[in-house]
Design a protein that fits this description.
two-stranded antiparallel sheet; mainly alpha; 284 residues; single chain; globular
Length: 284
């Protein structure tokens, strides 16, 4: 039986955002849209007295409705009243909402930084409350990566080990979550394409810096596609880019064409389309 998180994982692939950057390598995660539900969903939980009276499952449904409608500020305000609670299901959603707010184009720099570390604290607390919650592991990994933008390269590279560990634990807890698998593929791709001089810098800081291969990245991207075929335009794009890096132009052409032809429902889909077109031109 699918969990609510399984049903919503497509939405968790639509806002384009930085995942982890070491030198010139960056990990990107994007998040897709569910059909927008009625504004009445928000009205039902607008009153604090009504919110307090709702059963947990109903309240989580309302939160997920708001998330599906991209009502980020309303969702954040709804969940914020549970920031001191004991339930991981509320806390990891609050971490996600905080992070989504930080990614809004009109969010000022100071507020963005505040939200990034706020999100990390909520994700950490969610893990403390329930270490068997796969979504808590996934969002802790993502939020920890975001915090690295403010902590320097050494911390960022050091956190890469922790990030991979939590992604692997998320996948172990829920092998059907295509987004976690995709993100781990991106982790591998970024370190596989790290230039040699950046590897040397990393080796100075760490005796054994993170490493990976295009073959490993490919395995994760293919696995994500196996779990949920055609679930995400960027996964199609990354399959094409990985095959290009491996000099398999025939398969690169196949996947880049799929990425180009993917219905562009979101801003990220449009960017994927543009990049796929550009890469196809390079393939001739």
């Amino acid at each position: 039986m699918q969990t609510r998180e399984d049903k919503l994982h497509r939405k968790e692939l639509n806002l384009e955002h930085s995942f982890c950057e070491a030198g010139g390598a960056s990990f990107l995660l994007g998040l897709p849209a569910l059909s927008c539900l009625a504004y009445a969903a928000y009205r039902r939980v607008q009153s604090s007295t009504v919110v307090l009276a709702l059963e947990k499952e109903e309240l989580l449904e309302q939160a997920d409705y708001l998330y599906g409608c991209a009502e980020t500020e309303k969702l954040y305000q709804l969940l914020l009243q549970y920031k001191d609670g004991e339930d991981a299901e509320f806390l990891w959603r609050l971490a996600r909402a905080s992070r989504d707010l930080s990614l809004q184009p009109d969010t000022e720099a100071d507020r963005k930084k505040q939200l990034v570390f706020e999100a990390l604290e909520y994700a950490k607390k969610a893990l403390e409350k329930d270490e068997k919650c796969f979504a808590a592991h996934k969002w802790y990994a993502i939020c920890l990566s975001d915090s690295g933008d403010y902590l320097g390269v050494k911390v960022k590279i050091g956190n890469s080990y922790i990030i991979r560990d939590h992604l692997e634990r998320a996948i172990k807890l829920n092998p059907k979550d295509a987004t976690s698998i995709h993100i781990l593929g991106y982790w591998c791709f970024a370190f596989a394409e790290l230039p040699w001089y950046q590897r040397k810098v990393a080796a100075v800081i760490f005796s054994s810096p993170p490493t990976s291969t295009y073959e490993e990245a490919l395995d994760f991207f293919l696995k994500a596609e196996e779990v949920d075929p055609n679930f995400y335009s960027k996964n199609l794009l990354m399959l094409g880019k990985t095959y290009m890096a491996m000099k398999d132009n025939q398969k690169a052409l196949l996947w880049l064409t799929k990425a180009k032809e993917y219905p562009a429902h979101t801003h990220e889909d449009k960017e994927v389309h543009k990049e796929a077109v550009d890469l196809l031109k390079k393939l001739g």
